[in-house]
């Protein structure tokens, strides 16, 4: 797959010049150099606010329909957002919207908390029923769209008048001990019923978003830029059709960047190619150091990043694609900082 093909695809996804917020990268820098340099800087850039707002509106449409149509059965349903759009690491045309549909019949308490009045219903069946009700009502609300109820944890609706895919995720509140003490929502979790596993799975999307934001803010946006970069590399690799999907999820990508040491990017916040060089050095270190690789947790500490044997291969694919683009950009800018075999 040629760099030109990648570059042309990325250009269609990029934010307009007056809407990009990529920590003072100069327009003269971006327009002066070649395709690989432009691709890399564009891949780091945030999605245009107007496009992001369109995604947000699609989630609101689904929420409003479910809230209205399910009001009799579930008068106190709650809704929240999770996923890349909610934490501003999304990329254009490859990010959908996740709408948590939080049931009003019960919530789960983290031990050693005990409920004053234990729930006597069947929580798993309640979430199964909520899921089916969501699927039925979404079909009624969006007759021209495709509603897919085959996923393990969500009902997906796409097409028709919707401009992006939206996942409705039936769930229940999981109230941690910390949430009961401080009432800060990032301490609160949700349980999602996984139909394939036949059990409820704990997710911490609000803690994840809180940590991404808290980590990114004092680092002047660098982590989010590098997360978008790797997500775009992954999306374009998969779009090439040369290989199967890369087994390294967006969640894994964000977690890998989140665990990147600060000293690798110190003092180079406004030097995009140096940042990419630092990211390559970090990935190479992870790939070449089994003890390090086996110690890295995802952002919310719910599991290891490399929890399956195929994750290492998936990351290596992203690394090789990024390394090629970096070398091409390095030549375009006459930068003398070259990655050697000793580094990688």
UniProtKB/TrEMBL annotation:
Highest taxon listed in the record's lineage: Bacteria
Name assigned to this protein: Nucleotidyltransferase-like protein
Organism of this sequence: Prosthecobacter algae
